[in-house]
Amino acid sequence: MYIKARAQLDKKTKNLVKRLKPGEIAIIDHCDIDEVAAESLVDAKVKAVINASRFISGKYPNQGPKILHKAGIFMLDNVGTGIFDIVKNGDEIEIIDNEVYYNGNVIAKGMVLTSEVINYMQQEAQKNLEEELDKFIENTLDYAKKEKYFITENIPIPPIKTRIRNRHVLVVVRGKEYKEDLMTIRYYIQEVKPVLIGVDGGADALLEFGFKPDIVVGDMDSVSDKGLLSSKEIVVHAYPDGRAPGLKRVKELGLDAHVFPAPGTSEDIAMLLAYEKGADLIVAVGSHSSMIDFLEKGRKGMASTFLVRLKIGSKLVDAKGVNKLYRSNLKLSYIVGLLLSALMPIIVISMISTPMQQLLKIIALRIKLIFGL
């Protein structure tokens, strides 16, 4: 394998994909790369991905590498963080088999990830899943006990201006299959006109489909400036002690924001905000709900998510995977049936209308003359 191209590098994949150009080599430091990160690299049309860390560490069978391989993207695994001290953004590098060259010198070596290697590593990781599950459950229960005040006590909810009471609320997270699910429910959005809440990068997901977010909720680490500027209101997720690192960025853009101190994830507080403001229904797109989702986000438990979903109960509809529910092929029998239904009124009118009967006789006579019948 030989690849020569310009490199772009960043230890945060979500920051790197914003400036990647087609055909470039992405250099990342992303252990257990998740599906969303992998899909963003595929969308960027990179030629290769060099990872300073392990694509699959063996803790759990993450699916990111399979997505990259399926897209035909070359992967070089575990080359070490020293590459970040040598290569700069825009530098041209070469990959020859499992070695990285810069100015003619070998600067890093790794393991090439083939389909066989990926399958083997995932099978090995599957063996560790039970142990990880035990740890995950224990952490979830421990933190649920500590954070139960999150749903049992009256925590201060930001005084937002957007009217939510008795309306549907769509909470969008840029998670697994968010594009497919948004595409499937776009008519629901157009017809019902729910309040649109983008959780960090979820604001950009809404813009991608032509919808402007009413509210952006998050710690502001993965939403674009355009996403923030397009939103009517901003709610910065702060630590329970009140520290809100994301507020600085909002202020630098000259925007105002509410601060919401709370434990857990930003999508949790977005749902809680909608519930406490009287939403009639909360629809979640791309949200994290499974153990693998949380492990891919680097979280050791899902206490706040468990507690919030316990509280909002029947008001929540999770649209994850809804695209699969409605995916079907257009069958020939459906088309024939539709055409017959459309022709039926014409046939009936022809049978009872004297002018139509005369017209049909003229057409029949014309056909006979043409063919000499």
Automatic annotation (TrEMBL):
The keyword ATP-binding applies. Keywords: ATP-binding, Kinase, Membrane, Nucleotide-binding, Transferase, Transmembrane, Transmembrane helix. GO terms for molecular function: ATP binding; kinase activity; thiamine diphosphokinase activity. It comes from the Bacteria. Residues 320-371 form the SteA-like C-terminal domain. The keyword Iron does not apply. The chain crosses the membrane at residues 332-352. SUPFAM superfamilies: Thiamin pyrophosphokinase, catalytic domain. One of its GO terms (biological process) is thiamine diphosphate biosynthetic process. Pfam families: SteA-like_C. This is Uncharacterized membrane-anchored protein. It comes from Caldanaerobius fijiensis DSM 17918. The lineage of its organism: Bacteria, Bacillati, Bacillota, Clostridia, Thermoanaerobacterales.
